[in-house]
Amino acid sequence: MIVVAQTAVRLDNRYLLIQRSLADSYGGLWALPGGGQDDNETVEKAASRELQEEVGIVPTKLTELFQIRSAQDNKEYLTHIFLCKQFAGLPCPATEDVIGVGWFTIPEIWKLDTSLTPWTIECLPQLSFLVRHNHGGN
After folding, report:
1. Phi, psi at residue 115, to the nearest 5°?
2. Which residues of 14-42 are buried (b: 16+ CB within 10 A; e: fewer)?
3. How much is the average pLDDT of 101-106?
4. What's residue 14's pLDDT?
5. What is the pLDDT of residues 63-94, one digit of tens each?
6. How many C-alpha atoms does 137 have within 13 Å on its Cβ side?
7. CATH 3.90.79.10 fits 2-132, yes or no
8. Coil, strand or helix at 78
9. In 3-state terms, the chain is what percent helix, strand and coil (to 5)?
10. Is 117 helix (H, G, I), strand (E, B) or coil?
């Protein structure tokens, strides 16, 4: 099983999405920042590392919200979704794998529909529920 960390970076009522490189799998689609856990690394460390690598920010606090098990491309995944409301730096594409960043409200993310990666679509119902019921706080 492949362990993945994704982070919903929140600023006010908006969430940070990255646009994946056109040369990458799911190129041009929007996603939560994240990626696979490396050997000898906690999932929280993976979430922090991926934020630094992809958008150049350093989280000062991460809270795990939920996990999702899924299968894609004949592989099994366990995805940990984190919330980050405190970070240092200004998000911008920090690697060639990211061609854009944007801040979106949850309704705006839903409207992106097929412009989202499959794993972002998978976690959106739970993320929306938690936001709607103010889990994770303001």
Report:
1. -90, 5
2. ebbbbbbbeeeeeeebbbbbbbebeeeee
3. 96
4. 96
5. 999 999 988 789 999 999 999 999 999 999 99
6. 6
7. yes
8. strand
9. 30, 45, 30
10. coil
